[in-house]
Amino acid sequence: MRELTRHRLFWPAAILVVMLLANLIFTPTFFRIELKNGHLYGSLIDILLYGAPLILIALGMTMVIATGGIDLSVGATVAISGALACSIIAEQADQEAVGGVLTAVGLALGLSLVLGFWNGLLVARTGIQPIIATLILMVAGRGVAQLITDGQIITINSDPYELIGGGYLFGFPFAVLVVVVVFAATAVLIRRTALGLLLEAVGGNAEASRLVGIRARRLLVLAYVFCAFCAGIAGLMISSNIRAADGNNAGLWIELDAILAVVIGGTSLMGGRFSLAGTVLGALIIQTLSTTIYTTGVPPQITLVFKAVVVTVVCLIQSPAFRAKAFHRSRPSTPAPSEAEVPA
Amino acid sequence: MLRMTGITKNFPGVRALDGVDFRLLPGEVHALMGENGAGKSTLIKVLTGVHTADSGSVRLDGAPVVIGSPKQAQAAGISTVYQEVNLCSNLTVAENVFIGREPYRFGRIQWKEARRRAAELLERFQLDIDPGAPLGSYSLAVRQLVAIVRAVDISAKVLVLDEPTSSLDRDEVERLFRLMRRLRDDGVAVLFVSHFLDQVFEISDRMTVLRNGRLVGEYETRALSRVELVGHMTGRVLRTLEELHAPREDVRDAIASREPVLAARGLGRKGGVAPFDLDVHPGEVVGFAGLLGSGRTEAARLLFGADGADSGTLEIGGAAAVLRTPGAAIGRGIAFCPEDRKSEGLVEDLTVGENIVLALQAARGWLRPLSASRRAELVGKYIKALNIRPGDPEMPARNLSGGNQQKVLLARWLITQPRLLILDEPTRGVDVGAKAEIQKLVVSLAGDGMGVVFISAELEEVLRISHKIEVLRDREVIAEIANEADATPERLLEIIANGVAR
Questions:
Q1: For position B236, what pLDDT does the model report?
Q2: If you average pLDDT over residues B387-399, what whole number do you get?
Q3: Cis peptide before B390 (omega within 30 of 0)
Q4: What torsion do the CA atoms of B167, B172, B175, B181 make, to the nearest 10 degrees?
Q5: A1, A164, A343, B328: which has the fewest C-beta neighbours closer than 10 Å?
Q6: Which neighbouring-strand residues pair with A155?
Q7: Domains (ranges, CATH) in chain A?
Q8: What integer pLDDT is reported at residue B88 of this predicted model?
């Protein structure tokens, strides 16, 4: 048991399970998954579907936070990516043309890479603190998105584009499949190459990493580019889901949810050790919380406070110092041997 | 003025101070001397209330005082100025002098009054500093002077200066000394801690020497020679030396005839170390001897590209090399274990295995990872070869003891099979067993043809394993001596203390 509770993913997983079970009390059908017209439906599917953009962004944010940095500009990147894709599609004679949609998607993701490269250069080359460097794009990016959409909300009507955020493939929501693919690809990239090791070294001890010959600048740029790429995909999903590009509100404050997801997932803001699976759990916790608020009918005027209270409790449960204090009396002064022998 | 009696302080596993007596007279500059770990900083921390002594008493002006916190120390009249000035560089000089005790009138701060009084103070100490200018516009040296003025104005009995001169140049030191003499003449007892022997002899009236947490003695500076002082500090002069196995002369000559793996000519860096020449041959161990702050580390960092040199040239393996980054040095087969394991060596979050492969992986780049089996094989081999304990590659590196952490760093570089290995204090803070293992390892690596630069504050250690020794003092290489029969710790001490016999 002790071994199990010590596992770094134990607390995020436990919190998620408790939250899901709590929903069962209010909504007895919460765990039901149905097949309608060959598509999967259900509250759990909804959580995955609506949580997809957040999971993606949080994955990218994990890489940046692992280096000891932070990326505030992901929300702006979401807006720019969606704005570019929608405005390209809107100008086309045939919005249903797959080729045109692919062009739009490609250009939007390409621009996202450029934005990430810009962040990376600012942080790695000029040594501006990440929070400031990305704050520039966070603010300016909304303006860029407005320029692209001419200050309007561009609505589109394109079935191939709607697939990204709202469509289904093999019965599963397409967005969820995208998340699975990105997660798998990231996990392979991180753990099958030495990227994860080197990122953790740079985030864990920058000076030691320099003296060991790690070219930290390239890694930093790479992390920010990856993060922006994820935000770009999320931007496509969000705009596809609402069939419109809203430069003002798309992805607003999502950077804060993403940072929260990373932290709840057990990655320290100081950098170093990170956990992709933890981040996914963290993002799911946040999305479950939002879904819970809608389904249980928490009055709208207290949703924000309710959310804050739950997040505070989650963070406290995550804190070893708090747990030690809260459970101090029930803990034996010497570890019981029988407990230690139980395998995890 | 101040008398500390029988001060004892234990830390877990270490007795940092053992019954130390210490006294300060009014109107003197008193130097506290000792090697690293002798207990100087602990004594100062007890005196200034950062630590509480386990036993012993402190009397100030004849009356017993209890110093339980830095605040109480200040209230009792003991002020400290640390090496890093703890002032706010965004505020003005006057604001800094009076921060926390601003003159009030009707609940409002009288800034005019504060500026006027600050100007008076600065004038009294003959310092040409504008009280209205932001502190940040002045150099570190001036900030230190302001910190001293502030400290003295708050409480003027005992002033503790901990390594105040380590980052000052010659003129700035002179300015600081003028202020110190002035304070002394005003009756303040100034306690001065410095690694620079020349400065200690220039400024101090008396000194107290500590060694291994014990009091060695209290001396009049005038009546003490430098050799005696260094002898007291290290405790080596009177003790018979362990038998040294200095390398034989013919071996040394054979090594010296090889093509050097590294040749530095006039290599130097302003503010780091004065230009020096150095040849390291394959199979040769070159020792760097000198006190802390003598420039040993700075010299090593230039050889590794950790700092950029601003003068001189470097040849590695016969080819000219300009090292702008450590990566460039590593690519040429140089490895460097830094002095500060925690902040510059180990990545404590990572496991032992990850730390060991880090340098090799960095050289390969992230796209060419070591295969899991190759990695396990390498890590296992070096954990075994260096006897790293516990030998669990998955254990976080932070959980290892100092000696085993050092071995992890050695393993990290040995995996890369360097031509030249630079070790900065590899045996400091390491227990005796691990120390002997590390020394043996260095000798055997050199026997296999690796060039080694070995830096240590322990002269015996340097003499035991080096073929030749560079002696450093005050950021300058002042002598290169072959490790022959007449190379003894005493001779090294004398060179360190007095310079080369002229």
A1: 61
A2: 87
A3: yes
A4: 30
A5: A343
A6: A244
A7: 2-341 (1.10.3470)
A8: 85
Distance from CA of B311 to the nearest CA of A (A): 21
pLDDT per position as a tens digit, A267-315: 988 889 999 999 999 999 999 998 888 888 888 888 888 888 988 888 8
Partners of residue B301 in chain A, C-beta under 8 Å: none
Say which residues have a Cβ less than 8 Å from residue B381's Cβ, sequence separation at least 6: none
Share of chain A residues as helix, strand and coil, in percent rounded to the nearest 5: 70, 5, 25
**In this structure, are residues A72 and A255 in contact, taking their beta carbons and an 8 Å threshold?**
yes
Q: Decide if A212 touches B, using CB distance below 8 A.
A: yes
Per-residue pLDDT of A21-73, as tens digits, reads: 988 888 888 888 888 888 888 889 999 999 999 999 999 999 999 999 999 99
Q: Is the per-residue pLDDT at A342 higher than 70?
A: no
The CB-side HSE value for A325 (13 A sphere, CA atoms) comes to 7
DSSP bridge partners of B173? none
Q: What single-letter DSSP state applies at residue A1?
A: -
Place of tokens 């038998």: B243
Q: Structure tokens of A11?
A: 């607390």
Note whether A212 contacts B338, CB cutoff 8 Å: no
Determine whether the interchain pair A197/B350 forms a contact, defined as Cβ–Cβ distance below 8 Å. yes
Tell me the sheet residues that pair with B420: B334, B451
Widest pairwise Cα distance in chain A: 74
Residues 359-388 of B with CB under 8 A from A: 359, 361-370
Q: Give the nearest chain A residue to B344 (CA atoms).
A: A208
**Chain B residues touching A210 at Cβ < 8 A:** 306, 325-326
Ordered structural domains, chain B, with CATH: 2-234 (3.40.50.300), 251-333+454-502 (3.40.50.300)
**How close are the terminal C-alpha atoms of chain B, in Å?**
42
Q: What is the reported pLDDT for B171?
A: 76
Residue A62 confidence (pLDDT):
97
- Which residue of A67, A205, A211, A267 to mutate against B (max B Cβ within 10 Å)? A211
Given a contact cutoff of 8 angstroms between Cβ atoms, the answer to whether B23 and B184 are in contact is: no
Residue B186 reports pLDDT greater than 80: yes
**Is B396 near chain A, with CB under 8 Å?**
no
Chain B residues with beta carbon closer than 8 angstroms to that of A201: 347, 350, 354, 358, 362
Q: Is the reported ipTM for this assembly greater than 0.85?
A: no
